Amino acid sequence: MEEVLRLEGISKQYTLATERPVLLKNLFWKPKKEKFWALKNIDLAVKKGEVLGIIGENGSGKSTLLKILAGITAPTSGKMQVKGRVASLIELGAGFHPDLTGRENIYLNAALMGLTRAEIDSKIKDIITFADIGEFIDSPVRTYSSGMNVRLGFAVAIHLDPDILLIDEVLAVGDETFQRKCLGKINAIKRNEKNIVMVSHDLSLIRDLSDRVVWIERGQIKKSGKPLFSIKSYLKKIEDVSKKFHTNKNRKKELFISDVTFEGKSIDKNVFSSNDPIKITIGYNNRRAINSASFGIAIYDELGKRLSGSSSEPLSISKKSGQVKVTVNKNSISDGQLYFTFAISSPDKLINYDWIEKGYSLRVKTNKNYSDTPKFGLQWMKND
Questions:
Q1: What does the pLDDT look like over 92-131, one tens digit per residue?
Q2: Does residue 248 lie in a domain region?
Q3: The pLDDT of residue 304 is above 70
């Protein structure tokens, strides 16, 4: 199948100043500077009609990659080939002139994308309708709220009939109705076999829209493949890092979670039957003889979507170490991975003694008694 986008050895280096420049001092000594590689040796090809999702932690290089694809910034080294018109939804409204009206900015931005006056005239009614900012379309953009800027920016970019659409977290803004409109438009582009390259921390959205997902870590491609393959690999790494970070920090904590164990009707090691109770034991160490605390749990699916959460009433706790148990009476998935966050706080919730973000997981498989009713029942008890 024809390739519409190819990157070969793309790297991007930035120079970071490690100290504030002082004029007189700089006459004799140059400020210290460090080199930072935001991207390093990225090789990537996108075929016609493919939707590519990009995931990774903050600072991994995702947005830098999109900015290179959009032509906003140039790579330090490497080659890039792009076929067709590119539209970007990266910094919506960033190119608007504040003293021009919304209507005038539509013409300006579309002209910069290479559209003729006649082409813009044929699209402007649809753009204004989609933006849905009413009479403000003929007011200066400097009078717009941030939400109105987003609406207008998305409406302009999405109606330019791009061959490749670049999206960076823009669906995280706006109200529910506007987000649904945006998703509908993106799906229409996908049906027309146009290309989409999107960055998002919403893993459910990435899974549903993407044909392939690339996981970027520290400026390099860590995994590339089917959406669930890349997403699960990414979440497993987060789980491992959370455990390691937690272990290294325990030495300085007054009250911390020492271990977590799971019990229940097991199909295999760490694989439990759906719709059956799962008993969780949270062990803790108490270095400061704290008298009482509240324990918390949050449960997520394999795409990071929160399914349920609960916190205990204030519990009296042992002066040295002990255990607290919580029972998950129901689970809401038929087959998949569950991720758990655990926390300990003061009774008034003002002090967080310990927090393990998605540090534990287990797998659930369907059994014959499975009920597809999405319910969770969480029951707490102290077991010192």
A1: 555 688 899 989 988 888 887 778 889 889 989 999 998 8
A2: no
A3: yes
Question: Residue 330: is its pLDDT beyond 70?
Answer: no
SS3 state of residue 353:
strand
Q: Tell me how crowded residue 65 is: count the other CB atoms within 10 A of its CB.
A: 28
- For residue 319, give the 3-state DSSP assignment: coil
Asked whether residue 246 is domain-assigned, the answer is no
Tens-digit pLDDT profile for residues 199-246? 888 887 888 888 999 999 999 999 999 988 898 888 888 777 766 666
Return the higher-pLDDT residue of 289 and 292: 292
The pLDDT of 46-70, averaged and rounded, is 89
Helix, strand, coil % (nearest 5) of the chain?
Answer: 30, 40, 30
- pLDDT band with cut points at 50, 70 and 90 for residue 374: very low
Structure tokens at 145: 């709220």
Same domain, 11 and 146: yes
Is the Cβ–Cβ distance between 361 and 333 less than 8 Å? no
Q: Is 344 left (phi over 0), alpha (psi -120 to 50) or beta?
A: beta
Question: Which tokens is 309 given?
Answer: 């959460």
Q: Which domain does 347 fall in, by range?
A: 254-382
Angle, helices 117-131 vs 102-112, to 10°: value is 130
Q: Are 344 and 257 in contact (CB under 8 A)?
A: yes
- Same-domain check for residues 300 and 373: yes
Nearest Cα to Cα of residue 308 among 355, 277, 340: 340
Q: What is the pLDDT of residues 141-193, one digit of tens each?
A: 889 887 788 788 888 888 877 888 888 876 655 667 777 787 888 888 888 88
* CATH number of the domain to which 100 belongs: 3.40.50.300
Q: Do 234 and 216 contact (CB within 8 A), yes or no?
A: no
Query: What is the 3 state secondary structure string of 126-175?
Result: HHHHHHCCHHHHHCEHHHCCHHHHHHHHHHHHHCCCCCEEEEECHHHCCC
HEC profile of 53-117:
EEECCCCCCHHHHHHHHHCCCCCCEEEEEECCCEEEECCCCCCCCCCCEHHHHHHHHHHHCCCCH
303 vs 232: CA distance, rounded Å: 8
For the chain, the domain total comes to 2
Selection from 159, 100, 91 nearest residue 128 by Cα: 159
Whole-model pTM: value is 0.67
Q: What are the two backbone dihedrals, phi and then psi, of residue 163, each rounded to the nearest 5 degrees? A: -85, -30
